[in-house]
Amino acid sequence: MAIFTDISPDPQPNPRRRWIGWTILGIGLVGVVTVALIPAPFVIEQPGPVYNTLGDVTIDGEEVPMIQIPNETTYETGGALDMLTVSIRGNRQELPSWLEIASAYFDPSKAVVPVDLIYPAGVSLEDSNTQGRVDMENSQKEAVAAALTELGYTFESTVRVVESSEGSPSDGVLAAGDVLLSVNGVSFSDVTGLRAQIAANGVDKAAIVDITRDGEPKTVSITPTMAAGADPVPIIGIIAGGDYDFPIDVRIQLENVGGPSAGMMFALGIIDKLTEGELNGGENIAGTGTISGSGEVGPIGGIQQKLYGARSAGASWFLAPASNCNEVTGHIPDGLTVFSIATLDEALDALTAIESGTSTSSLPTCPVS
What we know:
Elements lengths: L14 H23 L4 E11 L3 E4 L2 E4 L1 E2 L11 E10 L8 H8 L5 E4 H4 L6 H26 L6 E8 L14 E5 L2 E2 L3 H11 L5 E7 L2 E7 L2 E2 L7 E2 L2 E7 L6 E2 L10 H12 L9 E4 L2 E2 L5 E2 L4 H10 L4 E5 L3 H4 L8 E5 L2 H13 L13
Parallel strand pairs: 5-16, 16-19, 19-20
Antiparallel strand pairs: 1-5, 1-6, 2-3, 4-15, 7-8, 7-14, 8-9, 8-10, 10-11, 12-13, 17-18
């Protein structure tokens, strides 16, 4: 039986069809590239610079210690007590492209966040930067207060209005320079305490706020509103600052970094410099967390990015706010042990265990998974 195979040449391709095919492919590629480069309504959180609170920083072109205590006896330190930062790629005026967003989505060290959560509508970039700067200044003051309180110093403190936001509940009610004494009869010694009392009041009723203005006592009524953005808590629309009459001069120097999240690490750095021995045992230890003047450690944003920043900087130990542990679990880089910290005393307990080389198994940690 013979098998016949058609070996005649294929018909010549139709040039018109080939041209149409290439045209469609080209248009498709142009469309994909165009869409990829269109700005997306998101920003990208990624690990930022890492600073050793025991080390030096550059201020106006000169290397200076981040923490200076000029008129007191200080002691040699070793290793690192690193504070972490988060860099934000994008803002309302300059959004990242969809291509950048897609790339960040598959990078575990980065987070894709709606722009409204970081830069709420109606809040200018300038206002956001101002708030970040004031938060940093307050965190430094409260870190000094927490450290000196831990070391047995006593001092007076007040909370003042730095600025009242236009159109906010406090507009026309509170003024710059007003000293805030209590909310609903509950006094406080720092900005953290003020925020806690406003949050406890909620947004359904007016808060009774006792103040002094130009030395004269005064009582005002303010109904808080809910903050926009990533942290929707009751606010009264002011920028507040803490004033302390510290018995010794402690200076913290750091440029172009905003926010309150370095408070705990500042406090630990101060204590390390004012006490003999190496608080961290010469180890490279990183951490983050707000701190109140009385030593409570509070939550921060960007915890996952800070974990990766710490590991990249060589840290093996990480001090994380206990209230951030739910965000930490499942996102801990290999080789990093994360302690769950609620107070300055707990942070010191963790450092003591590391310094002495004793077991840390009894200390609270954030679960790996």
